[in-house]
Amino acid sequence: MGIVVQPADRRHFSRLRDIERRAFETLRAVGAVSGEAKTNSDAELQAYLHDGLLYAAFDESGEPVGYVGGFTAENCLHVDEMDVHPDHQRRGIGRQMMEAILREGGARKLVFATLTTDRFAPFNAPFYASLGFEIIEGQDLSERLRRMLELEAEKGLDPRRRVAMRARLDRLSKV
After folding, report:
1. Which one has a higher pLDDT value, 24 or 72?
2. Type and span of the H or E element at 117
3. Distances in Å between the alpha carbon of 14 and those of 20, 27, 41, 42?
4. Vertex 43, ends 48 and 62: CA angle to 5°?
5. Is 37 exposed, middle or buried (0-12, 13-18, 19+ CB in 10 A)?
6. What is the average per-residue pLDDT within 91-110?
């Protein structure tokens, strides 16, 4: 049967946080993060769920092995978190989850998808670029994205590594 990507719900929150914690170590290994792993709270996961933008990748046993969560702002789908458990990485699961959430953004007639990510980790900015995202900087950054990058720096993420990206949803041919 393989991996199935579908909406997640509250009963999955604990497992989603575990996936996020474990994926943090993959980022640590490439220098993208340091310090203690932080995960989304129930309130943050509930906000994704409330917006209808919380998807999980489920294995054959029905267990989540990855998740993606987002919200809408400024006529954009903002992909706020995406993680795949290290035991399941490099199998196309992240791509499947991104395609699912991007399809939903397109179905909602949103104009752009945005996200912030590490510019150097090969499975971050280069991966998102393969889906049609482009780095945006300087005057192209909305105030919302500028503030998000500032908040990430305040949380200890290296601002030299962080970047905002955007894709026009109507131009994404892969979703």
Report:
1. 72
2. strand 112-118
3. 10, 20, 10, 9
4. 60
5. middle
6. 93
Q: How far is Cα 91 from Cα 152, in angstroms, rounded to an integer?
A: 28
The answer, yes or no, to whether residue 86 has pLDDT greater than 70, is yes
Say how many C-beta atoms besides its own lie within 10 A of residue 26's C-beta.
17
| b (16+ CB within 10 A) / e for 111-144 | ebbbbbbbbbbebbbebbeebbbeebeeeebbee
Q: Which residues pair with 165 in a beta bridge?
A: 115, 135
CA distance 155 to 161: 14
d(CA 138, CA 134): 13
pLDDT at 24 over 60: yes
pTM of this prediction? 0.89
From CA 114, how far away is CA 73, in angstroms rounded?
10
Q: Which amino acid is at 162?
A: R
